[in-house]
Amino acid sequence: MKQPSKSVFAAMAMSVLLAGCAQGPSVAELNALTEQIVKASFRDQGHVKIERITATDETNRLCSEADVSGKPLAEAVAKRIEAANLQTIKWPSDGKFLGDWKQGEAIAQSGRGLTWTDQPGDANGGNCYNCHQISQEEISYGTIGPSLYNYGKIRGVTDPNSAAAKPIVEYTWGKIWNSKAYNACSNMPRAGHSGILTEAQVRHIVALLLDPKSPVNK
Amino acid sequence: MKWTHVLCTTALGLAVSAPTAWAQKTASQGIDEYRAMLADGNPAELFEAKGEDLWKQKRGPKNATLEQCDLGKGPGVVKGAFVELPRYFADTGRVQDLESRLVTCMSVLQGFNEAELIKTPFGRGEMANITALATWISGESRGMRFNLSQAHDKEKTFYEVGKRLFFQRGGTHDFSCASCHGEEGKRIRLQDLPILTKSPGDGVGFAAWPAYRVSNGQMWSMQLRLNDCYRQQRFPYPGFASDATVALGVYLGVNAKGAASIAPAIKR
Predict the structure, then answer these.
(1) pTM of the predicted model as reported, rounded to 2 decimal places
(2) From the CA of B87, how many Å to the nearest CA of chain A?
(3) Is B229 a catalytic residue?
(4) Which domains, from first to last, does chain A contain?
């Protein structure tokens, strides 16, 4: 957080020196410099600690690097990341995947939680409508993610408790719990894995998407 | 007040026209009309006037004006400076954005304590003055096109660092700047999101801040714009005028090359 951080500039000068005069600093040097600048520039604010960005996991690190390079991850690396994230999924402790779609709608509407202006004890929202169309009634939806309107209907789910619906029900739970298990560098947060939503909240979201009575499937 | 009236009318229009696809079209048309009405008069003008006064006033422990402040085009040259910032400054040996440069000028010329200025919260005391100064200075380049220098090694390095910051995924939600600003034509809720990996066009994205925000009645500088993006990303707190915020500014500013500035703009 110090302003003209001397060490950062010393490192910059050094990295330029190391790379010689003909070309600029290497990718590794720029990555190291960025890391130093991040440490010097960001600070804790209330319950939001700097470790949130200095101690990110391999998934975020590799996906960020791929984004910077403009090239997608190598397929084998993507598969490895997906497998590791799949391992983290906590399946419903009582075997019940669906909760109450009405509560799910309220969670999907809420964008609250985990910023430095939120209180740590408050219930977090799912931020779902920020990026997805979900029910048809809510016209204020984002377009970063695909439309989820008719999510269950399109997938032919008429009875979420049936054996036929099981793969879709499990996928839906898993995708909400840890989106990176199915798409290594997905834009979607890992709601269960990262502690954004509780198990009960995930259940309500799954119901919002898959309950035939939910407005999503009308 | 006029603003409250406009807001209430629009909110009412939205509430009445909810359910069908037809209504959605009407709602977005309503929002476009609301935006057009906003552009009719911009309270940012008040901050511009305040900023111009502050620039010419003798203030601080040294009882001096800012008229000898070098914003990159020589002491006292204000016109055209905004659309070339952030840039490298030989006297400080640093790449600086407008606000960080104002902190330097206020400390060197007027004798303010740099560390004190930097830790003042947005909207308070001297920080409110820095925002007003930035508002006026940006307005002096209205209509001019962004053209940041990439001639100095440190400017090039800061662009590369800024690019890494832009794509840095982290926090509880794995968000990076690119989560929202990496693709064309996306929205959060009904809010259009500018693509920032290239120029999104005249008066959009980097070329639209500082801006007066009608929803909270506040004048927002680029530093506050970045700060609130990071807050919503669930990131920790970026220090005011820190190297990370300046490097990100270099990345956004260089990408905005050729875009005409409409700052100070007006936003919902």
Answers:
(1) 0.89
(2) 15
(3) yes
(4) 6-88 (no CATH), 101-217 (1.10.760.10)
